[in-house]
Design brief:
With about 240 residues, this protein is α/β, with parallel strands linked by helices. It is built from eleven helices and eight strands. The protein binds pyridoxine-5'-phosphate.
Length: about 240
């Protein structure tokens, strides 16, 4: 059974645009769960441009809600994450100037630090994941670093599909990496830039167990509402 994680960072972005309290990401977290999301994702960025420390803390206190907290390797962010104890963490690369996460982690360059961080979360029984590019080398290295799951950055595939270019090579790359990860006992997730079409394409890969979707899902909900959009995504990933 594939699961849907809903990234609600954009609710906080909208709230912050006015510097007031509405729309409330805490209510959004509860609501998306009520209408079918299997988990929620929030990214506590170093610049706190959307989710703030207090949001993350309060969201992690919501009962019966599985929270996936995306974090960089920044010491203070790691410290905060260990304190607020989400159910899951996903380590992502972060660059101050980027509009969104532009690619997977540079594992080779940061492997010692990442390994140490993974261990800290594993000690607290928090599920760990690494956001990586679909590369065989990075899957193998992820296994060596002792992580539970890997999430493939699907931005390249999404861009190819959206610009109506051939995406079969990228799809095969993700498929091969997913098969290898599964063999290595790493749970496979996918995320970034996904819409209905790209989610449907990737749903054909049996090894992908979780999709984490934000921007398109929240944007589409302006027209059709969170409930309808989440139900449509759930139907797509079930097929
Ligand atoms: N997964 C991870 C690890 C991410 O960093 C992001 C973007 O913040 C997403 C999924 C969701 O991407 P999008 O907002 O493009 O759906």
């Amino acid at each position: 059974m594939k699961r849907l994680g809903v990234n609600i960072d954009h609710v906080a972005t909208l709230r912050n645009a006015r510097g007031e309290l509405h729309p409330d990401p805490i209510l959004a977290a509860k609501f998306v769960k009520k209408v079918g999301a299997d988990s929620i994702t929030i990214h506590l960025r170093e610049d706190k441009r959307h989710i703030k420390d207090l949001d993350a803390k309060q969201i992690c206190l919501i009962k019966n809600l599985l929270v996936n907290l995306e974090i960089s390797t920044n010491k203070d962010i790691v410290k905060t994450a260990l304190k607020i104890k989400p159910n899951y963490i996903c380590i992502v690369p972060e660059n101050r100037k980027e509009i969104t996460t532009e690619g997977g982690l540079n594992l080779e360059r940061n492997k010692n630090n990442i390994k140490r961080i993974i261990l800290k979360f594993k000690k607290k029984k928090i599920r760990t994941s690494l956001f990586i590019n679909p590369s065989i080398k990075d899957v193998q290295l992820s296994k060596k670093l002792g992580v539970d799951c890997i999430e493939f950055h699907t931005g390249r595939l999404a861009n190819l599909v959206k610009s109506k270019k051939s995406f079969s090579n990228e799809f095969l790359k993700i498929k091969r990496c997913s098969i290898l990860a599964d063999k290595l006992n790493l749970e496979v997730h996918a995320g970034h830039g996904l819409d209905y079409k790209t989610t449907e394409i990737l749903s054909k890969i049996n090894q992908i167990k979780e999709f984490n979707i934000g921007h398109f899902l929240i944007g589409e909900s302006i027209f059709f509402g969170l409930s309808k959009v989440i139900k449509r995504f759930k139907k797509i990933i079930k097929n």
